[in-house]
Structures are given as C-alpha cells and as structure tokens.
Design brief:
The structure holds two protein chains of two kinds. Chain A has 20 helices and no strands. By secondary structure, chain A is mainly α. In chain A, α3 (56-86) runs antiparallel to α5 and α16 (318-337) runs antiparallel to α18 (346-368). Classes of the chains: A mainly alpha, B alpha+beta.
Chain lengths: 431, 180
C-alpha cells in the first residue's frame, strides 16, 4: 500500500540520507567528559577507601560497577541479536550503538579480572577452605558450613575462573561474529541483503539461547554466590530482564543524544522513539513482575533455607532501602512512562532513562551489600558505604569513554537495510 | 430526535495517506474546523492534521484501573480480616503480599474494559446510521484503500458551491456531496 504511494509521491517527500554517516564530533566531547568524571571519582574512591581503612567496600562496589557495565556489553549483545531476529525499523537506530556496546567486552573482562584476583574478599565460599575449622571457630554458621560443603563442586575458585573464561569466550565469539559480519553486509551489494538478513537471524537465534544460559551462569557465580546458602531459580531471568531494562535505557539516551546532529537527526523519527519508549515500559513491568514473583513465592513458602535472604534485606533499616528501591525501580519509571507525551518528548524520555540507570544501580546495591555479615539486617553508615557511589560512577565513566571510541569506529547507519527507505519517509506514510 | 435533512457535508476522496494528510493540514490552516478524516487503518498524522489532540480514553482507563485495584484489594482485606479470618500457616490475617496478584489482575481487567467501552462510548457507538454511508465510493473504499476528508455542513465557513471549489483546489480524486 504505502510502497505504491512511494513510487508516485514518496520521491518528493522522503528525506535524503546525509553523505557523511560517521559519528558526530561531539562524541569526542562525551569521551573527554567521561574521562574527567572517571578520574575525579577514582580520586574520591581512593580518599573514601583511605577514610574507611579497608578495601572491602571498594570491592563490593566494584561488583556493582561490573554488573552495570556487563549488563550493557552482554545485554547489548542480546538486544542486538533479538533485533536481528525480530527485524524492524528500530534496528537502524539501535544497531550501531548496540554493536559499540558489545565491543566494550574487553574492558568488562578487565573489570572481571579484578573480581577474580580479589575473590577471597568477596565470596565466603572462596574464603573458607577448612569448613570444619571455620565452623568450630564460629566464623560460619552451621547452615553456611553445610551449604559451602554441599556446593563445593560448583562454588570453588577453579570453577569460578573457568566458567567465567568460557562465558567470556562465548560472548567474545558472538561479539566478533556479529560485528565483523555487519561490516561485510554493508560492503556487499544491496541485492544480497536478503541473504545477510537470513544469516544474521541464523546466528542470533541460537545466540539468544546461549546468551541466556551463559548469562545465568555468570550472575549466579558473580552475585548470587555471595550468599552461599541461598538460591533462586528465577535469578538469571531477573538479571536478563534487568539487562534489557538498562540496555534499552542507555540505547535511548544514546540515540536521542546523537540526534542533535547528522546522521541521526535524519533517521530518528518520533514514531520509533515512541515505540522504544513502549518497549522500555514493557521491561519496567516485566522487571517488577519477576522481582515480586520471586518475593511472593519465597514469602509464601516461608522456608528457613530461603527466607533469611529477604530478612537480611528488610530488617535493620533495609526496609527503607527496599521501599525506595520499589519506588525508584518501578513506581517512578512506570507512572512516567505511562504518558504518551513523555515518550514522544526527547528531553523527558532521556531524563527517565537516566533515572532508570540510577535505579538499576540502586537495586544492585540492595542485592549486593546485605550479603555481607557486617551489613545483613544492619544498614549503617560507614565511609565505605559511599564507595557504592564513587566506584561504580568511575567504572561506568571509563566504560562510557571506551564506548565512545567504539562508536566512532563505524558509520552510524547501516545502509544495506530494507527499512532504510521507510525510515526516511515522512511518518504518516507508514503510521 | 427528528431526522435531519439537507447536506451533511462534502466528501473528498484521496488515493494515499500522504495526500489526505496534506489536504487536511491545508484545510485546517485555511480555517476549517468541522471536518473529519476517514482511513482504512489508523493514520495518526491525519488526526493531528485536523487538530485532534486529546481524548478522555486514557483518563477513563486510569480511573477504571484504580477502581479495579482498590475494589479487589479492599475485598480481599475484608474477606481475610473481617468476614472469614483463617489462620494460614501462622501468617497475619492482613497478608498484603498475597493480595497483590488478584488486585493486579483486577487492575488490568478494569483498565481493559474501561478502555474498550470508554472508547466506544466516546465514539458515539453503537450507532445504527451514519450519513457518510450514502456515498457509494465511501461504502466501497473507506475500509479498503481510499482516504477521505469530509468538510461538514456544520462548519460556519461551509457553503456548497464555495466548499466544492475549495476542495477542488486540494486536488482530490473525487468530491461527493453527502445528504443526511
């Protein structure tokens, strides 16, 4: 229908793609700004560590920073694969930013190496070699001793390292494959595009499944195992949805910020922006759905193996944090994203997305800190607690700087795409 | 209400949504207000072009949703705390986490029903008769592949001869005068 109209009318109204598709110069400004912020917060983190007198909180906050940046790099890979499978015009807006996110994997790997080196400070199961002795000295409880003993085949340093290496190798493989083929596709003749579409689909389909499994393994080792006694079968899915949440938020921020200048000025239309707002809204909903489902099931069961995990995170002033978490993470983005006008307003949508990234970090704080004996059921101030601001901000800032360099390496618009002609049309032709 | 007589309006037919939107924008710019667009599928820009900006469906949906939420939550509270207090695994009678799921379902249900019926009511449906169906090209094309702009006789600017001339200037495929 609309294609017919294209022939007669489209030619006069369709916008033309600018000749220069490279990332605008202000991406370098972002990079410089990010590096400044990164340096400043590294300094702050150092001062705080000095004031606190120990490195424990730096490392816990480091895991928070790792989970955020890992969420973008590997969650970005997942959304990229989902996009290749579903198709759609939003791919033109998101694909290159997502590709740039996936290519930050080396930095995430470096972040992870720090966790490997400091494993003993972060994970109780790594700390305790002699379970019987630790139990006798009162260092661990009977429940912890049993859990550590029982889970030893999985929770041991070698398994931690090898699982991590295998996961990174798999993510690295998909990152390399999708990024390399995307360039080949653009260099190829437009007639071959259907072949490439199929090819990307065939890689991405199984890739999504493999991503879900590897990502689940990674979050179980990196975060869930901080408390060796507890487990939840929805944990991987919770992080998967959380990654969708933060990746969509960041992608929207990047696309809208890039649209201040060519080439995104031409291709970012209100229709697609609105659609992405709706997709983000769906993830906000799904996120609370899973988080609440996990809570409801454990609350209903009320079993001594499971419920302490929530007690650690509710009692001793943590109730304030979980209430705020609920509001930050769900209530605020949910009520705001209900509005159609907001989703169509660039500035406000960006504000909400920035808020969502903050809320994600806040949620991770609630997940990570109460795993440790000094903080469980006892939220109290120490200088170390402020590391949860300083360290992740610095890590994310350096990550953003690296992301900007990755963004600069390719043209921002994929040209061999059947949707390109559509996204250049005035919006009503396809509404 | 007695049957109305005379002209309902002038109906211009277009082949593409782009032509319709341009014509509607022009007509709005030239001061026409009582007009409407008819398309086989939703064309949001056409609605914008004729100055349609707000409707009350979102508000009705929100009110419906809050009513569903409140009603179910209060109902569960009443059942569990006052009407049939039962000791379930030693939990408090007012166990709000367990109330969330049905309350959430009712929120969705009421929101959906309010949106659907609210939209129908605001559209003036069900309606058994509409004068535009007197136009044969409208009957045949409005739900398949034609795009229509109707200047209604209620518009103060409306004049049968002048209106026709004006519509001609928008270069439609055809113009039909529609009787009540």
């Amino acid at each position: 229908m609309a294609h017919e109209s294209n022939a007669t009318h489209g030619a006069t109204h369709a916008k033309a793609l600018p000749a220069d598709l490279s990332a605008p110069a202000f991406v370098d400004v972002w990079k410089m700004r990010a590096l400044t912020v990164g340096a400043a917060f590294t300094g702050i983190a150092a001062v705080l560590a000095f004031a606190d007198g120990k490195l424990d909180h730096v490392l816990r906050a480091w895991v928070l920073g790792l989970m955020l940046t890992f969420g973008w790099a590997v969650g970005g890979l997942a959304l990229l694969m989902v996009q290749y499978c579903t198709g759609g015009k939003w791919g033109l807006l998101f694909r290159r930013p997502l590709e740039a996110m996936t290519r930050t994997l080396p930095l995430v790997f470096v972040y992870w190496l720090v966790v490997v080196l400091e494993m003993k400070k972060l994970y109780l199961w790594a700390q305790v070699d002699d379970v019987a002795g630790a139990l006798k000295s009162g260092f661990i409880s009977e429940i912890q001793a049993h859990a550590i003993e029982f889970k030893r085949p999985m929770l041991n340093p070698a398994a931690f390292v090898w699982t991590g290496l295998v996961c990174f190798a798999i993510w690295g493989f998909y990152t390399w494959r999708l990024n390399a083929l995307a360039l080949k596709r653009d260099a190829d003749l437009p007639e071959n595009t259907p072949y490439w579409i199929k090819k990307f689909e065939n890689i991405s389909g199984p890739g999504i499944v493999i991503y879900s499994l590897t990502m689940t393994a990674a979050v179980i080792y990196w975060v869930m195992s901080m408390d060796p006694t507890w487990y939840s079968s929805v944990y991987g899915l919770l992080f998967l949805v959380g990654q969708g949440y933060s990746v969509l938020a960041l992608s929207i921020i990047v696309s809208i910020s890039l649209s201040k200048s060519e080439p995104f000025k031409t291709i970012l239309r209100q229709t697609e922006q609105h659609d992405m707002g709706k997709l983000t809204f769906a993830f906000v909903m799904l996120n609370i759905y899973l988080a609440f489902a996990q809570f409801l099931i454990i609350w209903s069961g009320n079993l001594p193996e499971e419920i302490p995990w929530y007690m650690d995170r509710i009692q001793g002033h943590w109730g304030v944090i979980i209430t705020l978490d609920f509001m930050f993470h769900w209530l605020i983005p949910f009520t705001l994203l209900l509005s159609r006008d907001l989703k169509r307003n660039k500035k406000r949508l960006v504000r909400v997305c920035q808020w969502m990234i903050f809320a994600k970090a806040f949620d991770l704080f609630w997940l990570i800190e109460p795993n440790y004996r000094d903080a469980a059921r006892n939220l109290h101030f120490s200088w170390g607690l402020l590391e949860y601001v300083a360290v992740p901000v610095a890590m994310v800032a350096f990550w953003v700087a690296y992301f900007c360099t990755r963004l600069k390496t390719r043209p921002l618009v994929q040209v061999n795409d059947p949707h390109l002609a559509e996204i250049l049309e005035p919006e009503h032709a396809h509404a | 209400m007695p049957a109305r007589e005379g002209t309902y309006g002038l109906l211009a037919e277009f082949d593409t949504p782009s032509d319709l939107v341009r014509a509607a924008q022009q007509a709005r710019k030239d001061g026409w207000r009582r007009m409407d667009c008819y398309t086989p599928y939703p064309v949001e820009e056409a609605a914008e072009a004729i100055g349609f900006h707000r409707n009350k469906v979102p508000l009705i949906t929100l009110v419906g949703a809050l009513m569903g939420l409140t009603a179910m939550f209060l109902f569960e509270t009443w059942v569990s705390v006052l009407a049939y207090p039962l000791n379930i695994g030693g939990r408090p009678l007012y166990s709000w986490p367990a109330f969330i799921v049905p309350a959430y379902e009712w929120t969705i249900l009421f929101a959906g029903l309010s949106a659907a019926f609210g939209m129908l009511a605001l559209n003036g449906l069900p309606s058994l008769y509409h004068p535009l169906f007197n136009a044969p090209n409208f009957r045949d094309g409005a739900t398949t592949d034609k795009f229509f702009l109707c200047l209604e006789a209620l518009d103060p600017k409306f004049d049968l001869v002048e209106g026709k001339k004006y519509l001609q200037s928008l270069q439609p495929v055809s113009i039909v005068e529609v009787e009540y």
